[in-house]
Amino acid sequence: MDTLNDDRGQALVLAVVLIAIASVAVSGLRIAQEQILASARERRAGEAAVEAATAVIADAYTAELGRAPARSPDVFGAITDPSARESARAAATQVSVLNAGPEIGDVAVRCAAGLVDVSITIADRLYRAGFSGSACSPR
Hints:
This protein has three helices and three strands; from the N terminus they run αααβββ. It is of the alpha+beta class. It has a domain of 94 residues. The protein has a three-stranded antiparallel beta sheet with strand order 1-2-3. Helix 1 runs antiparallel to helix 3. It starts with 9 loop residues before the first helix and ends in a 7-residue tail after the last strand.
């Protein structure tokens, strides 16, 4: 019996190669799945955080409108006030962390053309939310 011409064991080698290819494919799919889930978690945390920050800014906006009916309200000053922005950042951070996201560094607020726009940045991705604010319109 010539060992060089013997066909026994070829199926075993083929099975080992196929199992190796399958394990690499499964590992790759698992890594891709983790990346997709991490991206979804980050997106969910960012959206929730900007909504929380917007709610705080909306409260400051409403409080300023209701504060002094006799005088013209300073809505821009109220919503861009450092204490309002810090409260918005704290609320955004709390919600982001609850959704497995990072702490929020800064909250940007813009008041123009009848809209109040609140934005935050997480991992180079901008998240924005806003509400209509007639006091932000030029008269």
